[in-house]
Amino acid sequence: MKRIIISIICCMVVLNLYAQRATDELPYGLRDGFRAKPQEVIALPAPDMELIEKEDRENDHQIGPVRYAYAIPVRFSPENSGVWQDLDDGGKIWRLKVYISGALSTNTYYDKFWLPEGGQFFVYSEDTQQSIGAVTSEFIESSRGKPIEFATALIFGENVVYEYFQPASVKESPVISIDRIDYGYRYVNNPYITGIRGFGDAIDCHININCSVGLDWQVEKRAITRIGVPITGGTGWCSGALVNNTTNDYTPYVLTADHALRGLDAINNYTASTWVFYWHYEHPNCANSYNTASVTYFNRRYCCCKLLGI
Hints:
The protein is mainly beta. The protein is 5% helix and 37% strand. The chain has 2 domains: 168 residues, Jelly Rolls (Sandwich), CATH 2.60.120; 107 residues, no CATH class. The protein is globular and about 60 Å long.
């Protein structure tokens, strides 16, 4: 067996029902009493589903992450898109709304990302009020001269809003460069809608963790993670698990398959800053109901991890 062990520092991002590593605040656009200036809405064309289905028929049998979202290249930033709004206290807010018809979800990639101290970045849906944020400088290991690649997690539905708040005391502008919005088209369990997809992919030996056979594994199940991995042409699903080491010092290693790493290595390509980790992905009971709202992602914690690919 080919055996590769890679140790990579990466950022774990999770949702807010679903929370990314963030301050857990409401975006200004969702706060009561906030009078938002009309924002720019950019409508992106939905991708060619016939082409996507053709590609999936060719690729699904290959070893590697299973694609669930299709990449739509964009070039959005506060310098070329969106609307700035001046606030009474001297602060200001930038907001941009993007609409993609038929999207089950969107997840976003940034080729350059940096925030000045005091700035706050949010991603959210006005329809469901699902939100990620505020992402702040303390959660981003970068500098203005060397911004990082970054990713934000799933926002369910056809609409997504990007919002940046800059208080009056902050003079430096952020670096927020969105270069890809991935269009979720399958294998997305939307907790805000019911009945869209059951467990037809599973076979008889796939037993829910919350069946009686899983009673002795209720602690261990919390180690399981579903991973959104950027791949050519979109984002794919992989899985992994937290593992301990022989020193029992609780270093948060995540074990995943070598094929999920897709070219990552400890020397030449060691960043996994655009991977997204979803924790507590489970069905709440034993029955394979078709109620996708019962799929849970409860964990709001963040930590840094080291990836091990075997």
